[in-house]
Automatic annotation (TrEMBL):
Protein name: Cation diffusion facilitator family transporter
Molecular-function GO term, any one: ferrous iron transmembrane transporter activity
Location(s) in or outside the cell: Membrane
Family statement: Belongs to the cation diffusion facilitator (CDF) transporter (TC 2.A.4) family.
Domain Cation efflux protein transmembrane: 13-206
Length: 303
């Protein structure tokens, strides 16, 4: 059985292969037709390739075990990958918009549209298949790097769909202005995807709390123990790539033995880790009768 990080790197290698193939197909189509829409599509595929290469590098870094300087591991390296990919998408969007505006001012006739459409369609189908594969793998492996790459590929697919629609319109109407107009509109969608990637990456680097479904899983585990009279507060969570970090204070009767309290905490930690694979749970045991134990309830307002 492949480890999660090893599997993630395998999927990223598939993405690299798909990026090389689709980039070649789209640049070939651009050379044949002279379509600025196909050029924008090919430029985005080039960014896909760079993003996938960086993603593979960051997944390799993230797979390294904890060391003396990184006691919590290297999982956050994935956020650098998604942030860089978001930045590259923005750069590509600016380049596409500049080229499209220039072509809008100085329109040029398009050639060999049938061949260009065929090549672009093949590339779009390849990207769609790989994107769905990466998206499912990213959700299963809890990898933001894979999910970022998948969303980038899906953006590429929609870009291709828009370009193909524009070329068909040019073919039917002969109005070459449609091609750069489509390209300009596509840059808005591309830029929006980039902004979302950057926001998600920033959230991870800023120790954003776990998503609502994960928090619900934690509360379901704690509710089982609440029914037994156990009290919890100061629940804090954060994500680091595919890993989740959870801490909480557990309040029990003060006359419990250390062994009894330790057994309870171990049971709580195991229950959460079974519901959320890849999580790291830390519990702090406190006597429920001690007033000092209740003075840290302000931490409940923290994520």
């Amino acid at each position: 059985m492949l480890s999660a990080k090893h599997s993630a790197r395998t999927y990223m290698r598939i993405s690299i292969g798909a990026a090389v193939l689709t980039m070649g197909l789209k640049f070939w189509a651009y050379v044949l037709t002279g379509s600025v829409g196909l050029f924008s599509d090919a430029a985005e595929s080039s960014v896909n390739l760079i993003g996938s290469l960086v993603g593979l590098w960051m997944l390799t870094v993230a797979a390294q075990p904890p060391d003396q300087e990184h006691r919590y591991g290297h999982s956050k390296a994935e956020y650098f990958s998604s942030a860089l990919e978001g930045a590259l998408i923005l750069v590509a969007a600016c380049g596409i918009a500049f080229t499209a505006i220039e072509r809008l001012i100085n329109p040029q006739p398009l050639e060999q549209l049938d061949v260009g459409l065929g090549l672009s369609l093949v590339a779009a189908l390849v990207n769609a298949g790989v994107a769905m594969l990466l998206l499912r793998a990213g959700q299963r492996l809890r990898s933001i790097a894979l999910r970022a790459d998948a969303h980038h590929l899906l953006t590429d697919v929609w870009t291709s769909v828009g370009v193909i629609a524009g070329l068909i319109a040019v073919r039917l109407t002969g109005w070459t202005m449609v091609d750069p107009i489509i390209a300009i509109l596509l840059t808005l969608n591309i830029a929006w995807v980039a902004i979302k990637l950057l926001r998600e990456s920033a959230g991870g680097l800023m120790d954003q709390a776990l998503p609502a479904p994960d928090l619900q899983c934690i509360q379901e585990v704690l509710d089982y123990y609440r029914q037994q009279g156990i009290v919890f507060h100061a629940l804090r969570t954060r994500m680091a790539g595919s890993r989740s970090f959870i801490s909480m204070h557990v309040l029990v009767p003060g006359d419990w033995t250390v062994q009894h309290g330790h057994h309870l905490c171990e049971s709580i930690e195991l229950g959460i880790m079974q519901r959320l694979p890849g999580s790291n749970v830390i519990t702090h045991l406190e006597p429920v009768e001690d007033l000092v134990s209740w003075q840290d309830q302000d931490l409940d307002r923290s994520p």
